[in-house]
Amino acid sequence: MITAKQILYVEDDAAIVMPLKYALEREGWQVTWVSQGRLALAETQSRTFDFIILDVGLPDIDGFEVCKQLRQYCHTPLLFLTARDDEIDRIVGLEIGADDYCHKPFSAREIISRIKSVWRRMQLTHNSVSVNSPTTASVEIVQEQQSVWQCHPERLQILYFGEALQLTRYEYGLLKFLIDHPTQVFSRQQLMDQVWEHPDHSLDRTVDTHIKSLRAKLKKVSSDLEPIQTHRGFGYSLELQ
């Protein structure tokens, strides 16, 4: 028996919610509607969803803050809805962990198409990772470092010296990619192309910001080591310890 996809819809305006909720349910998906950001965080902590539709303008805490808190423990694909028409907001939304972004007013057909598109990209990424596994040399290197790194892709979790790292979606993607290709140097653009769904919507400094955050989290586990190396004028690599 195929289980219906579970959608969390976070929006405070019932007049906007009801037509889209009806259209989503016509697709065979089950929709949970909440009107506040704090309720959305509570729902995601107690249940698993396949997709989140999140309005930016909520009555308690804005959608950007909800997304930032959400990405501390949840990697469910997420689409922002907003009445704003500001490129900076769009870029900020994608950089803090959203998978897509749609302006109001919108059609139900457009939202459904965007949801399906995100799911397709996720499946293609999953298939690519399964087929394009690391080279034999890389596998041997990672095996030698199993006491240092332990990756659990099914849980989107990485352990560093046995301690689980609390990573955002893009931090996880960056670190996992570097672990899979140890000692190889990648430019910022190469890293964005591999990890970001919308690399053309992001800036070079976005990678620098995420690398800085990753280094801080790694330092909390082992302050003496610096596994992520900067190669000035080139990019970053994960060096053997």
The general outline is: elongated
User: Which residue ranges are poorly predicted, with pLDDT under 50 across at least 5 consecutive positions?
Assistant: 128-144
- Secondary structure class reads alpha/beta
Helix content: 40-55%
Biggest sheet: strand arrangement: 2-1-3-4-5
The SSE order reads: EHEHEHEHEHHEEEHHHEE
Strand percentage: 15-25%
Counting DSSP H or I runs of 4 or more residues, the number of helices is: 9
Q: Major sheet: size, sense and barrel closure? A: 5 strands, parallel
Q: What's the rounded overall pLDDT mean?
A: 82
The number of E-state strands comes to 10
Distance between the termini: 48 Å
| CA gyration radius, whole angstroms | 19 Å
Describe the structure.
This protein is an alpha/beta fold and 241 residues long. Helices cover 46% and strands 17% of the residues. It contains nine helices and ten strands. The chain has helices at 14-26, 37-46, 63-70, 87-95, 108-131, 136-144, 169-180, 188-195, 204-221, and strands at 6-10, 30-34, 51-55, 78-82, 100-103, 149-152, 157-160, 163-164, 228-231, 235-238. The protein has a five-stranded parallel sheet with strand order 2-1-3-4-5, sandwiched between helices. Helix 3 (63-70) links the parallel strand 3 and strand 4. The radius of gyration is 19 Å and the shape is elongated. The termini are far apart. Mean pLDDT is 82; it is low at 128-144.
